[in-house]
Fold this sequence. Notes:
Oligomer: single chain
Distance between the termini: 96 Å
Shape: elongated
Radius of gyration: 40 Å
Strand content: 15-25%
Helix content: 55-70%
Amino acid sequence: xFPHHREREQPIFSARAHVFQIDPTTKRxxxxxSKHAVTVSFFYDATRNVYRIISVGGTKAIINxxxxxxxxxxxxxQKFGQWADSRANTVYGLGFATExxxxxxxxxxxxxxDAARLAREKSQDKELANTALTIAAPQDLSDELQSPPVMCxxxxxxxxxxxQSADITLSSEKERIKKMLSEGSICEMNLEAELFTLQDSNxxxxxALHEANANVEQWKKQLTAYQEETERLRDQVADLEAxxxxxxxxxxxxxxxxxxxxxxxxxxxxxxxxxxxKAEYHEMEHQRxxxxxxxxxxxxxxxxxxxxxxxxxxxxSNSLEDRDRLDTEIQRAIEILDIKIFxxxxxxxxxxxxIDK
Length: 357
């Protein structure tokens, strides 16, 4: 089915990015879907008027998502963004090399979502028009309306009040737990995205540093060769001056010597620039260590939140058990009371018969 769709679909935009999916178990951690950056493309199916996001790694479809008007692409950092696919029950994350690529993808996502919304509205309007044409006459509505049955509650008013208050308390506790979980997961996801960006920048900087070190070694060799050439030329100049050379030859040798000295100066400046890049690399390593430290602190906070949530859930479970036990006791007391009332009624009737006799 996938090749058949590709024949009638046309690509409208493509970008390179690292693809991630949310962990289906924890719903908090990112799982890499590709080892390297892959192509992520928007496709348009003119036959069905449908937009899709597709990414293929080797022979496997990493992303196969139909764009709907309810989807939203969120930028969580300067180079990382995500959106949720309710049909696949997952969340996709994309890590770009530059902030500009992330901005272009977000703009294209918004355009495609608006186009999908317009396509759905046109389709709904067409369906309404077809439905209106097929209706031959208005249907008669029944005048008789049945009122919904009235729910009666038996038992003391005190029991009803306690049950309603317990339900309100349980619902508020559940909302607070959901809020705590969402705050912890969002914070951890943002830190993981920031750590991914730092790791990407770190790998690029390490590659540049290795290349610069290789260039430094090569330039040192060239510098040594230029110095030897300069010494040789100086020796030639001194030798020629001793033998009384012509002024033209002196000028040529002097010009060559000046060019070599200028070249040496340029190489010294390049070496100085590379040394300053080394300092930037150390600063990036320090930032990466700080991000890892913040991530560990967030994990500890999440562990504390999970422990508190477990305690709260245990308290809720105990409250539910207490409420059920109280309901059972009240029901048993009501049954005993009904039996006592029935016995008193029998006693009353027996006393009446005795009095009548």
